[in-house]
Amino acid sequence: MALMITDECINCDVCEPECPNEAIYPGDEIYEIDPNLCTECVGHYDEPQCQQVCPVDCIPLDPDHKETREQLMTKYEALMAAK
């Protein structure tokens, strides 16, 4: 699954620079995650880096974007090929 940022976000700015796929961006009120770019850090790290640094624990799995680890790896490979 891709991740999402909930409205508990305090806009602390620590998650955005941690995202290796540049999937996190400032939204109108809180940070948001582009599900087309989010691989849960599969291919880069063992754990999603945004979740590791978030001080308010507001980055859960996005139930609207269910993906297997294999699908996330395929997405990662496509993103790397496009660079």
UniProtKB/TrEMBL annotation:
<dbReference type="GO" id="GO:0005737">
    <property type="term" value="C:cytoplasm"/>
</dbReference>
<keyword id="KW-0411">Iron-sulfur</keyword>
<protein>
    <submittedName>
        <fullName>Ferredoxin</fullName>
    </submittedName>
</protein>
<dbReference type="InterPro" id="IPR047927">
    <property type="entry name" value="YfhL-like"/>
</dbReference>
<dbReference type="Pfam" id="PF12838">
    <property type="entry name" value="Fer4_7"/>
</dbReference>
<dbReference type="InterPro" id="IPR017900">
    <property type="entry name" value="4Fe4S_Fe_S_CS"/>
</dbReference>
<dbReference type="InterPro" id="IPR017896">
    <property type="entry name" value="4Fe4S_Fe-S-bd"/>
</dbReference>
<feature type="domain" description="4Fe-4S ferredoxin-type">
    <location>
        <begin position="31"/>
        <end position="64"/>
    </location>
</feature>
<dbReference type="GO" id="GO:0046872">
    <property type="term" value="F:metal ion binding"/>
</dbReference>
<keyword id="KW-0408">Iron</keyword>
<feature type="domain" description="4Fe-4S ferredoxin-type">
    <location>
        <begin position="1"/>
        <end position="29"/>
    </location>
</feature>
<dbReference type="InterPro" id="IPR050157">
    <property type="entry name" value="PSI_iron-sulfur_center"/>
</dbReference>
<keyword id="KW-0249">Electron transport</keyword>
<keyword id="KW-0813">Transport</keyword>
<keyword id="KW-0677">Repeat</keyword>
<keyword id="KW-0004">4Fe-4S</keyword>
<dbReference type="GO" id="GO:0051539">
    <property type="term" value="F:4 iron, 4 sulfur cluster binding"/>
</dbReference>
<keyword id="KW-0479">Metal-binding</keyword>
